[in-house]
From TrEMBL:
This is EamA domain-containing protein. The chain crosses the membrane at residues 34-54, 66-87, 93-111, 118-136, 142-162, 174-194, 206-224, 236-255, 261-281. Belongs to the EamA transporter family. It is a multi-pass membrane protein. GO terms for cellular component: plasma membrane. Pfam families: EamA. Its main location: membrane.
Length: 292
């Protein structure tokens, strides 16, 4: 029963994250990227810190260092993603961000020489093809927004990789709290450096950024951490990759975004690449049988 509730919880996370692409697009109409990120991560830091830190024993240097690395990767991912969103559509932004799942095995290979399976290699080739169909212009150039979003996907890939490495060694509550604090501090520094401290947001902008901070950040990170205790990591990755599908769905329904056949083809190929790269077939079945 817990496993099925956990699967439902992860699906809920993807729905919320999918809505985050639309909320970010709406917030950008009256706020700058770093204004949105500063408020978003401040809310996440306050809520996760308030929940995690009371009663917690002394912090260790190693887990603080790990949380800072995760926070830097998270900041880079979100910063490039939301800046890229200014120059592309929410649906393309969502699917290009989803390529981070394909990148993770290759980061593991480059850093720890972990073997990349055939599915991962085929998935990477399919992802590149999907990105080309979805994003390349007639002269085979990549649009500014799409290029920035892909770089943001690299940041998210590092965050996922680092989380996988550190979550097994250190306290998850501490990692989450330090990660959010780091992302907030970096966002605030860029906000001041860009001279964007004066905020003149619309009511819709404030509602959007509150959704991003309270629901799409604080709630989802708590929910994701709790649910992944009961769901195999491979299945969890496949479920979470559906964020891009909901991102596109909300863009069509709420923003009346027009979808072309070329966009559909590119999105389908990218989604197939994400699912294939995370499917481990018989190896995963043996692992689950051993657990039971």
């Amino acid at each position: 029963m817990r496993k099925y509730l956990a699967i439902f919880g992860l699906i809920l996370v993807t729905v919320i994250w999918g809505g985050g692409f639309v909320a970010s697009d709406m917030a950008l109409e009256s706020m700058s990227p770093f204004q949105i990120m500063t408020i978003r991560f401040f809310l996440g830091m306050v809520i996760l810190g308030g929940i995690s830190l009371p009663g917690m024993k002394a912090l260790k240097k190693e887990e603080i260092r790990a949380g800072i690395l995760m926070g830097c990767a998270l900041f880079a991912g979100f910063a490039l993603q939301i800046i890229g969103l200014q120059y592309t559509t929410p649906s393309k932004n969502a699917f290009l961000t989803a390529t981070n799942v394909v990148m993770v095995p290759f980061l593991a290979f480059l850093i720890y020489r972990k073997r990349v399976g055939l599915n991962g290699i085929v998935g990477a080739v399919m992802a590149v093809a999907g990105v080309g169909i979805l994003s390349l212009n007639g002269d085979f150039s990549l649009g500014t927004g799409d290029a920035l979003t892909l770089l943001g996907a690299v940041g998210f890939a590092f965050q996922i990789f680092l989380t996988g490495e550190f979550a097994a060694k250190y306290r998850v509550k501490v990692l989450n709290c330090v990660q959010m604090t780091t992302a907030f501090v970096l966002s605030a520094l860029f906000l001041v450096g860009m001279g964007e401290t004066s905020i003149h947001a619309s009511g819709e902008g404030w509602l959007s950024v509150l959704y991003l901070g309270l629901i799409s950040t604080a709630l989802t990170y708590l929910l994701q951490t709790s649910c992944q205790q009961y769901v195999d990591e491979t299945k969890a990755a496949i479920i979470l990759s559906m964020e891009s599908v909901f991102g596109t769905l909300f863009s069509v329904i709420l923003l009346k975004e027009l979808i072309t056949l070329r966009m559909i083809a590119g999105c389908v190929i990218i989604l197939a690449a994400v699912l294939l790269s995370n499917y481990s077939g018989g190896e995963n079945m043996k692992r689950e049988a051993a657990r039971e």
